[in-house]
Structures are given as structure tokens and as C-alpha cells.
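Regression test case RT-17, inverse folding.

Input:
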């Protein structure tokens, strides 16, 4: 998508072909900085410190990180070490495992000399696939937005609520939840987005608002607790969120707070859709509540806020009494019964095991735990 008229992706191979460039998401919205990753360690830190984040982008970064590792050492031992350290970088997003499995499977039968080139080809393939899949998600989701727009008075905006950042910064391009929004906006449908700020790390405030603003999409930032009130007063037509891991039965793990929005949507009979590439489906599990590992992050993300001071410096300040104990759960699970539908690259699918199996027959045959 565009940043001040210049098309960008969130990750790309540097011209030197031996390093990777990413947009440093820890600096946004205050500074647009490109971070260069040259080693496996750089890729692991970029994922764990959320320089890059969002399930699909984590997967793509892991694949490029594998390539960087193979440039240094392409032995069997190095391959295992690269897999393990990238896999440990963030526990919840299943695209990470998907990308690593895909890369390692392709390399195993090759000689060490051939591995770096193959890892690079796989990383590029994963990145291109992500862009294409998000485009498909956008096309399917656009139908929902057009249908709502058709029931409104001419010129009246379709109000869409979104949580966290499931935008192009969370993917390689387009985003998952934002792809239908960008397509609707680009095709002239009036849209307005309610952007949940998404504490503790404020991905909505700092990333979604930044993205939408740079593309020109009308939006309003809201505190996380506001969505229910807006729904009660007819100011939300549709909720679109992303997913970090979806079970084979359609339970959706996503950024903490997603579940509360789904509950509020159900109570107000509003459509609550989850946009996801099929690489986000974990076919090995059924029960989201008990089988998805929920990442717990450092308490400072909750006890401090970071922002820009009037003199331009970016600083973090504490907002709690000294010594306050903090619990920082990064994700929650929305049970399938609260999900109106899953918008995938193969169309809009009911959040159920049978509907997912029909849409992805080649994936659904493996065993579930
Ligand atoms: O912790 P993050 O910022 O990596 O979490 C990302 C999310 O949960 C997003 O909401 C997104 O929906 C998943 S990725 C498209």
C-alpha cells in the first residue's frame, strides 16, 4: 500500500540480496524507519520485539530469517537451530510454524550448497502468496460491504469496527481485515472505520490509524471499551478482525479484547467476521480455549505507555503505582459460535469444522489432537 504516495510492502529483499528490509513497527506512528536484518539473530529479535508483527508477516519474516541463517551455515545442525530459534520467537501465531515447516521440508533433501537459494525462493513464494491471498480475502469481504452499502441512503458511510492491526503492516501487503476496507474505499463505497486503540501496545492507535490515514480512509480512533456502546446505538454495521490462529472447528485466537467485541456484536445482532489466510488455520487442534498457547508478554507493556513528547523525543512513562503486579495476556479466544463467518482466500466460510473441511479438503484430513 502507499506511504505518502510511495508504494511499500512491509518486508522485502535488500538490493544486496543478502539482507532483508522491514518497516520498524516499534517506531510508528512517530517515525517511518526501515530496519535492515542481516542475521538469523536479527530476524528472531525483530519477531520477538515486535519490530514486525501480525501472524502473516511473522510467517514471512521467519521464512526470510531462515534464508539469512542458510547464508551463514547450511548444515543440518544449523537448519535445526534456525527452525528452533525462529519458532520460539512468538508462540501464538501459527503462520510461524507453517512458514518454517514449508521452508525446512523444501531444504531437507538438498545439499548444503543448494539450501540458501531454495530458502530464498521459498521466502519470496510465501511473501507473494500472502499478497495474493489477501487480495482474495479483500474481494470476498468487499461483497459484504457492498451489500450493506446498498441498503443505506446514497452517500451514507458503512461503519466498520476493527481491532488491533490486521492491516497491511501485519501482512506483506493489503492486510487481512483491512483488505475489504481498502477495496471498498478504492471502489468509491463510502466507509468509515472505528479503530480500537488496542491496549496494551496500541496497534490500533499507532498502526491501523497510521495505515488508514496514509491511504485516506476515513476513520476514528476509539478507546477499547467504546465498541459496545457504539453497537448499541446503531453506529456499527460490521466488525472485521484478523486472526493469529484458528482451530479446525473455527475458534479464533486473536489480539486480546477480540472476544469482548464478539460478545457485544452477538448481543446487538451485528455481523462479526474474521478475515484470515488458510495458513492461520491450525488443523491439528479443535478446542481454541484449551489448546492454543496464549503468549504472555512483559508487564511493562501494560504499566507504561510510550508516546512522542512535544520536543519530538519518544519516551515511555509509567501509569501505575510503583510495584504494581501486572498480567499481560496478548491474545484471547473467540469461540466459533460468536463468529458470523470466516473470510478466507476461498470465500466466506461458516466457523465450523464441516464448513472448513469442505473449503479446504486437502488440509483437513490430518489428525486433530
Ligand atoms: O501481537 P500482534 O500485534 O502480532 O497481534 C496481531 C493481531 O492479533 C492482529 O489483530 C491480527 O489480527 C492478526 S494478524 C493479521
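Golden output:
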Amino acid at each position: 500500500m502507499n506511504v505518502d504516495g510511495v508504494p511499500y510492502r512491509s518486508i522485502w529483499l535488500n538490493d544486496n540480496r543478502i539482507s532483508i528490509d522491514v518497516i520498524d513497527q516499534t517506531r510508528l506512528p512517530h517515525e517511518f524507519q526501515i530496519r535492515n536484518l542481516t542475521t538469523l539473530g536479527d530476524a528472531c529479535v525483530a519477531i520477538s520485539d515486535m519490530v514486525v508483527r501480525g501472524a502473516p508477516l511473522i510467517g514471512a519474516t521467519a521464512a526470510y530469517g531462515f534464508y539469512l541463517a542458510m547464508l551463514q551455515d547450511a548444515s543440518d545442525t544449523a537448519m535445526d537451530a534456525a527452525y528452533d530459534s525462529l519458532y520460539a520467537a512468538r508462540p501464538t501465531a501459527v503462520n510461524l510454524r507453517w512458514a518454517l515447516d514449508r521452508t525446512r521440508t523444501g531444504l531437507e533433501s538438498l545439499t548444503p550448497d543448494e539450501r540458501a537459494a531454495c530458502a530464498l525462493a521459498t521466502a519470496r513464494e510465501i511473501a507473494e502468496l500472502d499478497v495474493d491471498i489477501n487480495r482474495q480475502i479483500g474481494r470476498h469481504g468487499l461483497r459484504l460491504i457492498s451489500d450493506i452499502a446498498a441498503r443505506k441512503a446514497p452517500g451514507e458511510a458503512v461503519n466498520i469496527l476493527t481491532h488491533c492491526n490486521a492491516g497491511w503492516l501485519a501482512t506483506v501487503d493489503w492486510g487481512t481485515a483491512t483488505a475489504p476496507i481498502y477495496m471498498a474505499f478504492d471502489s468509491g463505497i463510502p466507509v468509515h472505520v472505528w479503530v480500537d486503540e488496542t491496549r496494551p501496545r496500541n496497534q490500533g492507535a499507532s498502526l491501523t490509524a497510521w495505515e488508514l490515514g496514509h491511504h485516506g480512509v476515513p476513520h476514528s480512533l476509539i478507546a477499547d471499551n467504546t465498541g459496545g456502546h457504539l453497537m448499541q446505538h446503531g453506529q456499527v454495521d460490521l466488525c472485521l478482525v484478523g486472526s493469529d490462529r484458528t482451530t479446525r472447528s473455527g475458534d479464533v485466537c486473536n489480539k486480546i479484547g477480540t472476544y469482548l467485541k464478539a460478545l457485544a456484536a452477538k448481543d446487538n445482532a451485528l455481523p462479526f467476521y474474521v478475515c484470515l489466510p488458510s495458513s492461520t488455520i491450525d488443523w491439528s487442534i479443535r478446542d481454541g480455549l484449551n489448546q492454543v498457547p496464549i503468549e504472555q508478554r512483559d508487564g511493562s507493556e501494560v504499566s507504561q505507555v510510550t508516546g512522542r513528547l512535544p520536543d519530538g523525543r519518544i519516551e515511555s512513562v509509567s501509569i501505575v503505582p510503583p510495584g504494581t503486579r501486572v498480567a499481560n495476556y496478548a491474545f484471547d479466544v473467540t469461540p466459533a459460535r460468536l463468529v458470523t463467518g470466516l473470510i478466507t482466500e476461498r470465500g466466506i466460510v461458516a466457523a465450523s469444522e464441516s464448513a472448513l473441511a469442505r473449503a479446504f479438503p486437502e488440509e483437513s484430513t490430518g489428525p486433530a489432537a
